[in-house]
Amino acid sequence: MSIEIGVNMEFIRSQDKSFAVGVERAAKLGYKYVEPMVHNGRELLSEAGYFHSFSLDDDPGEMKDILDQNGVKPSALSAHCPLMRPEISVPYLEKAIRFAAAIGAPVVNTDEGIRPAWVSSEEAFPVMRYTLSTVLRTAERYRVYIGIEPHQSISRTTEGLLRIAGLVESPFLRVNYDTGNVYLAGGDPYQGLSAVLHLLVHVHAKDITVEHADAERGKVTGTPVGCACGDGVIDWKRVIGILRAGNFHGVLSVECGTEQQAARSLAHLSSLLNAPAQQVA
């Protein structure tokens, strides 16, 4: 695999459509990879076909059939949970890992979650180490990576992200880098991306509008979705140059808010990836 382009299923959320409709739309736009989101139990909007999230209690074969029928593959599963609450995260991530293996998704993406009020900063890392040590037994068995995303108070910095991704010595504990979250948190996404290249397994291609950055940069640790890649502050030519220099082989999973933004993102990233390498370096 070289550098491929996929889309996070969040792009269809604004239209109140189901997972199946979202996959069909992604395929029609020209995407070859999608990043589904999964949840535990039953959820009213998804059950009614108004939300794209997919229940881990459903048959993974059903999801795989939908993907196969539309000629797309899963780049990862989005399975965010509070690592500092193992009573939630351990069973959820173990189930997500088994689900990912069943549909052929190589990565389960997550982040540390919001630190509970009853967990001190000193306790946070031992608790996360316990959670990750436990779920990595399953990840290693099924050969599915866990991608830690910069999204909350600790992982908002490169130092914090690397500390979490180094809590357990395992080749299956890696990084899912989110350019937009890092930028909004006040960091340098290019320096950060370079610093985590040795652990990089998946990328959230998230751009941020100038207006959004002016309003929230340095005040938040991330955002659910961004704008179309190429419409905002992120220099995608520079990002691709860093990835190529680091010999990254994987998926740029676009995180945007609408179908129109997904179309523009695919066009912009494709133009850069298809350009001669010296033009993108």
What is shown here, in short?
By secondary structure, the chain is of the alpha/beta class.
Keywords:
single chain; 281 residues; alpha/beta; TIM Barrel; nine-stranded parallel beta sheet; two-stranded parallel sheet; 12 helices
Description of the structure:
There is one protein chain. The chain has a single domain (3-280), classed as TIM Barrel (Alpha-Beta Barrel). It has 281 residues and is an alpha/beta fold. The longest helix has 22 residues, at 121-142. The model has no long low-confidence stretch (mean pLDDT 96). The protein is built from 12 helices and 11 strands. The strands form 2 sheets. A 9-stranded parallel beta sheet has the order 5-2-1-11-10-9-8-7-6. Strands 3-4 form a two-stranded parallel sheet. α3 (60-69) crosses α4 (86-103) and α4 (86-103) runs parallel beside α5. Helix content is 44%, strand content 15%.
